[in-house]
Design a protein that fits this description.
Layout lengths: L3 H37 L3 H13 L3 H12 L11
Helix pairs in contact: 1-2, 2-3
Amino acid sequence: MLSKKSLLIFVIVCVILSSFTLKCYLDYSSDKNTGDRYYEKKNYQEAFKSYKKAADEGNSDAIFKIGIILLFDMETKNQLKL
């Protein structure tokens, strides 16, 4: 059985870790959301840049969108640096 002190420490550590995880998630998705806004406005070059940042962080949705932009060559031919 855990003592009250051990339980309190466990709860505090869990709260700290979950808040850190939430912050990382919000940072992680902000570039993808920015890319989505550019994509909707058909500004594919800026969308690509934002998706690239998110993709570098491991965002699979951003990786997919980069693939779509490159596959359909949405006004980006010879203008994007990978």
